[in-house]
Amino acid sequence: MKPSIRIRLVKEKPFYGPGPHLLLQLTHETGSLREACRNMGISYSKGRTIIARLEQQLGFPVIVSQQGGKTGGNSVVTPEGKELMQNYAGFMEEIKKRVDEVFTRYFT
Fold first, then answer.
1. Which of 20, 69, 72, 92 lies 20 to 30 Å (CA to CA) from residue 12?
2. Which residues contact 41 (CB under 8 A, 6 or more apart)?
3. 20-30 b/e with 16+ CB inside 10 Å = b?
4. What is the pLDDT of residues 46-98, one digit of tens each?
5. Nearest to 51 by CA among 87, 86, 76
């Protein structure tokens, strides 16, 4: 038995959690929002909606995309988007450690 938690960031609406975090990570790794969506098994339009909601709630862009052409398009995570990813990952790591400590106190 172990605890399972899911933390989302909320402003007017929930906008950042495990799904959007993975979408940004995969976009950063692949250089393509379309490829990130494909890897996650979601449509490109759903991925664009997630990014639009995220950017609307934050008030700044997290991805800059360039249209395709002969060489194809690309998507780059902005410095602010990278900072968001790093902060969320660190926050989640610390939260999980604390949850494990509390769980151990009550369930061992």
1. 92
2. none
3. bbebbebbbeb
4. 999 999 999 999 999 999 988 766 666 789 999 999 999 999 999 999 999 99
5. 76
